[in-house]
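Notes, Module 5: Reading structure tokens.

Key idea: the token line is not a picture. It is a compressed description, and you learn to read it the same way you learned to read a sequence, by spotting repeated patterns. We will look at two proteins. The first is printed below with its tokens.
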Amino acid sequence: MIAHRFGYGLAHGWDALTRTEVVAHGDCDNPLCREPDHWRPSTHAENRLEWAWRRNRLAGPLRDLRGARGRALAIRDAVRDGRPLDDVLAAGTRDGDRDQLPLWC
């Protein structure tokens, strides 16, 4: 069982878990995230639609050059080492995303 799915069961009860098709990760898109506030019930179809929308967000986690897992590991390591997160986040930003202003939030 995936850790965040197991955690969802602990946080919300096993009955809620068995009724949940997918435990969605919300907006953080961090596969290493274990924050219960970031988890919510979803379906495969909803999760795919939300992912498709979020992957095109300027400088968003899903556009990171290192991939979602690589980004998560870089953030984890930076926090452990006491390095500034801004530098770590900027390292994975695509050249075309830098200094771009979004049309909407």
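Here is the second protein, with the sequence above and the tokens below, as before.
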Amino acid sequence: MDMETAADILQMIRTTKLTDLRDDLIEHAVRYARMRVDYHLATTEQQSHLGADRTMCHNAFIASCDILARNMDKHGEDATWRQQMGTDRKVIGDFACWLHALLGIEAR
């Protein structure tokens, strides 16, 4: 996933009126992105301790994407961003990192 695609998906997510679910997705994305960096910077021994938590964070983020998309669809909102994101775990994780980066740049 590239930055432009991630920015497009983020814009579609921002259109929802389901703000609690949207905020939950963003929270999970930021948490997973941080965990991904922590894992990358960790020693091999530290990685063995972080692995399960990293997977749980990733699963929670993917679930939050699915929940938001399903509910947007139920409410007649455009949820095509979820299909655009696809099902590859690495790509979905990349989106979490792009979302984190885009929000960080916006916050300056």
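Summary for the second protein:
- Helices lie at 3-14, 19-41, 44-74, 80-85, 89-106.
- The chain has a mean pLDDT of 97.
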